[in-house]
Design a protein that fits this description.
This protein folds into two domains: 333 residues, 3-Layer(aba) Sandwich (Alkaline Phosphatase, subunit A), CATH 3.40.720; 89 residues, no CATH class. Helix 2 crosses helix 12, helix 11 packs antiparallel against helix 12 and helix 13 packs across helix 16. The longest helix has 24 residues. By secondary structure, it is of the alpha/beta class. It starts with a helix and ends with a helix. The strands form four sheets. Strands 5-6-4-3-7-1-8-15-2-16 form a ten-stranded mixed sheet, sandwiched between helices. Strands 9-14 form a two-stranded antiparallel sheet. It has a two-stranded antiparallel sheet with strand order 10-13. The chain is globular and about 65 Å long. It contains 17 helices and 16 strands. Helices cover 42% and strands 15% of the residues.
Length: 471
């Protein structure tokens, strides 16, 4: 009798677990594919450790997606390099084939076009959305709809977007919307049947009557920076967010096809901050993407047996190390950084223009205290202060120097400030570029159990297509 009761309890527990996680073997109607560009293992672990440190404790505070019950880790090398770029990495995640660095949606022969999981979904009758926190023609989103030899062919990539027939796009803007003698990409988008919305509120106004939608940030925001929406750490009221993008995409796709959709969401600026070796900004970007995942997770909880959410990355950026000496960390110190390294560079330039020859070292010290908590919460050594003082002297003498990263030009003062903060937080970086570290894969919902163990990035779209019945 006891044996039978024990078996019954196990069966009931199994049923409860299956109900909570989505039925094993069921086919998802709604597929979410989140890509944290540059988000390696330590970007995830570091963010969770940082969140716990902000609460004054050692340990982790789990992110929503890191709590997903099915996990794997993926290799990311390209066909041409041991370390992939975002074009080859994005293409592998989109179409399941290796290609060479800088290539979008083509095999290594530079001729043969390969379709993406988004195309397979569209052919299977699903509504399709491709979204990002950077420009809609950037490497990762482009990998899902474009076929070009080089990721920098932005105008041509924009034309491929117009021809895709997908239902919803969102991002900051186009990088190169104009070409002499040819219609602008905005005109081509509208000719292809897309309604252009500028910001989330404009989307809400226009969505009901739109057949297809391109959601961009406001024109004012694009005048300031068309390449991406602002970093989460720099965000101001009215800035478009990845959470809003995700919410709008779900709303539109569900209206377009209540029975089936596929949505890719890229957190693109985790990578950008990684190129800058800017840890505080990296962690805030991971948190920001997790907030977008939470929107999808809320949808999943309403449709647990019909939804699949997969979260991964195209590569790791920066070679982030969680420790630089000894056995202690002080990641809580990162909370005192008030703006990204690129924005702080702009801020210091404005100070120099405002004060001119009256810019004193005390003004700079007070500013560093306000924006990094230097000489207050964050210790600054004698040698470090000398380096900061030299950077100030160069500004005053009109010979300000800067460090060039892939997506930013960062003044020496700003570069030193975030480096000193990283050092005090006990973090290290090995590169200003990508690395070949494994990237994590997290999944929940119908078919999520297929993600386990070590896989290659090319396996991910194939698994999604298989469990969703696209192929």
């Amino acid at each position: 009798m006891k044996k039978h009761l024990f078996i019954l309890v196990l069966l009931l527990a199994s049923v409860g677990y299956t109900t909570a996680q989505g039925k094993t073997g069921s086919t998802p109607k709604y597929v979410f594919f989140f890509i944290g560009d540059g988000m390696g293992m330590n970007q995830v672990n570091g963010t969770e450790t940082y969140l716990a440190a902000r609460e004054g404790r050692i340990g982790i505070k789990p992110l929503c997606f890191a709590n997903f019950p099915n996990t794997a880790f993926a290799t990311t090398f390209s066909s041409s390099h041991g370390i992939t770029d975002s074009a080859a990495g994005g293409s592998a995640l989109a179409n399941g084939h290796k290609t060479y660095n800088s290539c979008i949606g083509l095999l290594p022969d530079s001729i043969t076009a390969v379709s993406s999981v988004a195309v397979w979904a569209k052919e299977a009758g699903a509504a399709v959305g491709i979204t990002t926190s950077v420009s809609v023609d950037h490497a990762t989103p482009a990998a899902f709809y474009a076929h070009r030899k080089n990721r920098n062919m932005y105008y041509e990539i924009g034309q491929d977007m117009c021809r895709s027939g997908f239902d919803f796009f969102a991002g900051s803007d186009f990088l190169k919307p104009e070409r002499p003698g040819e219609p602008s990409l905005y005109q081509q988008v509208q000719d292809a049947g897309y309604t252009i919305a500028r910001g989330y509120q404009d989307y809400r106004t226009k969505a009901r009557k739109a057949d297809r939608m391109l959601m961009l940030q406001t024109q004012e925001a694009s005048k300031n920076d068309r390449s991406a929406i602002p970093y989460a750490i720099d965000r101001k009221k009215g800035d478009m967010t990845l959470t809003e993008i995700t919410r709008a995409a779900i709303d539109f796709l569900k209206k377009k096809n209540p029975d089936r959709f596929f949505l890719m969401v890229e957190g693109g600026k985790i990578d950008w901050a990684g190129h800058n070796n800017d840890a505080a900004t990296v962690y805030e970007e991971v948190i920001d993407m997790d907030n977008a995942v939470q929107v999808a997770f809320d949808f999943y909880r309403k449709h647990p047996d019909q939804t699949l959410i997969v979260v991964t990355a195209d590569h790791e950026t920066g070679g982030l190390g969680l420790g630089n000496r000894g056995y202690t960390q002080q990641l809580d110190l990162l909370q005192y950084q008030k703006m990204s390294a690129p924005l702080y560079s702009e801020h210091v330039s404005q100070l120099a223009k405002q004060y001119g020859d009256s810019l004193t070292w005390e003004i700079i010290k007070d500013d560093l205290k306000e924006n990094f908590s230097f000489w207050d919460k964050v210790q600054v050594g004698e040698q470090q202060e000398k380096q900061l003082r030299k950077a100030y002297d160069d500004i005053l003498a009109g010979r300000e120097k800067s460090q060039k990263t892939l997506y930013a030009q960062i003044s020496d003062l700003s570069y030193l400030a975030k480096s000193i903060l990283n050092m005090n937080a006990r973090l290290g970086w090995t590169s200003g570029s990508h690395t070949n570290g494994y990237v994590p894969v997290f999944a929940i919902g119908a078919g999520a159990e297929q993600f386990h163990g070590r896989i290659d990035n090319t396996d991910i779209p194939k698994i999604i297509a298989k469990v969703a019945g696209y192929r």
